[in-house]
């Protein structure tokens, strides 16, 4: 099938490459010529395991190509995926200007039946706005070409996006017209595996499903974080509590890890947007307000511990920091707890030596020419002359660190573990003063 994907960001590129990989002819459109140039030259503007390989393979096979030509893109795919950004407005609602612009371009140039697929995370009711924008453009040129608007939210996790697309738990499709339903069924048939993963529903329910999923996951995390803080005061261990409750299938094991707060491009933005949608429709989503507030507090928990250990004034103190990305396997630092932690340390007069396997370039872009922040080529090199080690992201390479180096190179062996990576008893047995999250 010929497929157009509009937007070569994270979601667009992963979707385009995976759809090409199962045999479709995919054309990816972006209005940013610099991005398209990088892609045409074989580069990938984002860090995602496996993405480079799958893009290269499909470009070489002639199934995946890139363009800035909106007319060509509108005339290419019978399915037109809109996967452009929806940055939050100042009030927290998703800004739809790129989505609507993409819809207008389709309406301006399409010359045959099109299924327009909303892939971007968009508020409930957006499909109606997309439909209206396309219809308006068609009407301007007196066209009666038919089209359908479908909602097909993505559930990709950064760092595991290819796997998530190729082997999905479920594929949610909100579609009401039979022709569109049939096309979506065909398009996703190669991803079905051993049982039906396709969940068809009305468009609004599909739009809400995406927000519901992320809001539920964020709620679990904030719940565990609040409980962790309580456990600490009570002398209980949140890790044991997690094991104790996770075995109940109604609760399950996933997304129960307490830490120094959630970040990334989805949870913070989607929780805010859902609260906003609620208030626009007269519903005060109190629980989600609390989820968000608890997460803001949690991003400060590590610094609170540092202050309790070293005092409010950290002038002259220096900290080793491991992990800048909001989670492992990505260079994404959007809403990353590391940003809050670094700023809070600066505010109190400290300096930081940071290491991250892939996000240091991104940190340089964010922090610019910041003399209080230095970067090291290896985790160990951050330790020299530091007052303590602060772990913010649970990269695999931190799981088994060189404890001798931590003890000998830090000024004194103190560790703040924002991701509960280690067994406190083992670390303490090494002679390291250990502070985890909710570890009794
Ligand atoms: C998330 C959803 O998982 C995905 O389905 C959706 O499409 C986009 O949003 P992502 O933001 O890539 O994906 O990362 P995810 O792995 O879900 O982690 C989000 C944040 O929660 C990270 O900051 C992570 O550190 C934190 N987290 C996750 C916890 O603090 N505890 C947990 O138990 C799990």
UniProtKB/TrEMBL annotation:
InterPro entries: 6-PGluconate_DH-like_C_sf, NAD(P)-bd_dom_sf, UDP-Glc/GDP-Man, UDP-Glc/GDP-Man_DH_C, UDP-Glc/GDP-Man_DH_C_sf, UDP-Glc/GDP-Man_DH_dimer, UDP-Glc/GDP-Man_DH_N, UDPglc_DH_bac
Enzyme active site: 266 (nucleophile)
Reaction catalysis annotation: UDP-alpha-D-glucose + 2 NAD(+) + H2O = UDP-alpha-D-glucuronate + 2 NADH + 3 H(+)
Similarity comment: family membership: Belongs to the UDP-glucose/GDP-mannose dehydrogenase family.
Binding site for NAD(+): 30, 35, 86, 121, 158, 269, 334
Keyword annotations of the record: NAD, Oxidoreductase
Gene source species: Denitromonas halophila
One function term, GO molecular function aspect: UDP-glucose 6-dehydrogenase activity
UniProt KW Acetylation keyword: no
The enzyme's E.C. designation: 1.1.1.22
A single BP term in Gene Ontology: polysaccharide biosynthetic process
Signal sequence residues: none
Pathway: Nucleotide-sugar biosynthesis; UDP-alpha-D-glucuronate biosynthesis; UDP-alpha-D-glucuronate from UDP-alpha-D-glucose: step 1/1
SUPFAM superfamilies: 6-phosphogluconate dehydrogenase C-terminal domain-like, NAD(P)-binding Rossmann-fold domains, UDP-glucose/GDP-mannose dehydrogenase C-terminal domain
Start and end residues of each UDP-glucose/GDP-mannose dehydrogenase C-terminal domain: 320-424
Keyword NAD: yes
Positions of substrate binding: 155-158, 210, 255-259, 263, 327
UniProt-recorded name of the protein: UDP-glucose 6-dehydrogenase
